Amino acid sequence: MIFLIRKKIVPEKLLHFVHSEKFGGNALFIGSVRTRSEDPSCRLQKVRCLEYSAYGKMALKKMSQIKKAILKKWKNRGIGKVAMVHRLGKLNIGEISVAVAVSAVHRKEAIQACHYGINQIKKSVPIFKKEFFRDGKSYWVGC
Amino acid sequence: MEVIVKYFGIFQECAGIKEKRMEVPDRTAVHDLYEIVSKFFPKKRRLPKILFAVNQEFAKPNQQLKDGDELALIPPMSGG
How large is the ipTM? Predict the structure, then answer.
């Protein structure tokens, strides 16, 4: 289950996808829009909203590669299923921007693989975030 | 040969376009093409660190392009 979506993310759908009677550990990471963020001068600013865009074709390809890497890395350690969804478009404070769910026989591997998954999404998936602050200014994150 | 250059994030905003089809000489490398397209970015704007992707895989600046390749100019990634 790998998606880039413009509608609201429903985390229960990811959990439902990864959950099965074979796997006793189910880890879910949810990233959401917070009220404050640092501007390029490292000053904490009040956030109005965020806008995510992506190189869709490559982002889906990279997310599939992350999923494959997880299944390979934890292959002999009871890995189950992986679900990753990232939101695109304009998001308000509190809305979910990303969700990763992983199941495994035991909790340790489920949590480790979920942690690995979100880290890899941040590192290697071509998704771009623009922050809009309450003072009217806006910045591309990392630029 | 013909290649497609795709712009994302801040590069799309600077160039004002999403993609551009370009006729380039054979054996053009990624960095050669970037030198051409970066001329169209506003001079005053400080551009961020760039990564390249050819056909949806990250590519080194010296990678040679082939006819029909899709070169993407990728600004800092900030998913999550």
Answer: 0.91
